[in-house]
Design goal:
Structural class: alpha/beta
Number of domains: 1
CATH architecture: 3-Layer(aba) Sandwich
Strand content: 15-25%
Family: Belongs to the NAD(P)-dependent epimerase/dehydratase family. SDR39U1 subfamily.
Largest sheet: 8 strands, mixed
CATH superfamily: NAD(P)-binding Rossmann-like Domain
Pfam family, one: DUF1731
Mean pLDDT: 86
Radius of gyration: 19 Å
Low-confidence stretches: none
CATH class: Alpha Beta
InterPro entries: DUF1731, Epimerase_deHydtase, NAD(P)-bd_dom_sf, SDR39U1
Number of strands: 14
Number of helices: 10
Distance between the termini: 33 Å
Shape: globular
Order of helices and strands: EHEEEEHEEHEEHEEHEEHHHEHH
CATH topology: Rossmann fold
Protein name: TIGR01777 family protein
Length: 304
């Protein structure tokens, strides 16, 4: 795949940065679509403005693969009505602009891989084991993911092989859930959230980025995949394993759900909801091999 061009939206985010490193190591040419014209080593940056319907000339030309990671952070701010609109539009309107430009320029990349969310099945699905064939829910985050994937399907309608990676909690030492949970745990203040019994479907960031690359390189990959490790864990178990990895005690009681709702409002569902995904298509239909399929091994690598 040496010399193949990969164009990424949201490339400066948590997943994009690590994915870029792995792509460059494999000899890919990497380019970003960015709202600001910045200088990034080894990456060609093209400017785009979704509100103005603008993508800089040369961005889409000679592109072999497209990866869509752009989207406002779901857990970054309280869910005001304005924030909810931004969470949706930042995922869908970006894809719609890319589709429009692909049609105008008659460009057809080999594959389009879009980020998606485990919340497709609902913010709180209890103990239900959700495979890729499980139906969506009707709460806010499920709606976000459904319209997000619908926008990706519009790319597929152009005859471009399209993959959607429904991602759970990404384990990384750079950002996301683990640094937030590890910070108090380092001082002996680690505590489960809510009941602690809610399921968390997780994946090590390196395995997730390797899935993106596998989705680019393997023509058999098509449609939605639950991009998570094979064994979801409870919030209580994740907290416990973080404390073990840090060699710190866990002695505080659970943080009550009402307190989290007071602080985060509706957004509390992100940490209180239960999500058990089954990576059925990954395990049965692909040859993908995990490097970190056990939580203790993943946390040891991240928190060492």
């Amino acid at each position: 795949m040496k010399g193949k061009k990969v164009l990424i939206t949201g490339g400066t985010g948590l997943i994009g940065k690590r994915l870029t490193q792995l792509l460059l190591e494999k000899g890919y040419e990497v380019a970003y679509l960015s709202r600001k014209k910045t200088s990034i080593p080894a990456v060609q940056v093209f400017e785009w403005n979704v509100d103005k319907g603008y993508i800089e000339e040369g961005a889409l030309e000679n592109t072999d693969y497209l990866i869509h990671l752009a989207g406002a952070g779901v857990a970054d701010e309280r869910w005001t009505e304005e924030r909810k609109k931004l969470i949706i539009s930042s995922r869908t309107e970006t894809i719609e602009l890319i589709r429009k430009k692909l049609v105008e320029k008659n460009i057809r990349p080999t594959a389009f891989v879009s980020s998606s969310g485990s919340s497709y099945y609902g913010e709180d699905t209890g103990n239900v084991r959700n495979t890729e064939n499980s139906p969506p829910n009707n709460d806010f985050l499920s709606h976000v993911t459904v319209v997000w994937e619908k926008a990706a399907d519009d790319i597929a309608a152009l005859g471009i092989r399209t993959v959607k990676l429904r991602t759970g909690i990404v384990l990384s030492n750079e950002a996301g859930a683990i640094p937030r949970m590890a910070a108090p745990a380092k001082f002996g203040f680690g505590a489960p959230l809510g009941s602690g019994k809610q399921w968390i479907s997780w994946i090590h960031i390196d395995d997730l980025c390797r899935m993106y690359i596998a989705a680019l390189e393997n023509e058999s990959w098509d449609g939605p995949y639950n991009a998570i490790a094979s064994q979801p864990v409870t919030n209580e178990e994740l907290t416990k394993q973080i404390c073990i990895a840090l060699n710190r005690p866990q002695w505080l009681p659970n943080v009550p759900a009402f307190a989290l709702k007071m602080v985060f409002g509706e957004m509390a569902s992100v940490v209180l909801g239960s999500s058990y995904l089954v990576n059925e298509r990954i395990t049965k239909e692909t040859s993908f091999q995990y490097h970190f399929n056990e939580l203790d091994k993943a946390l040891k690598d991240i928190l060492a």
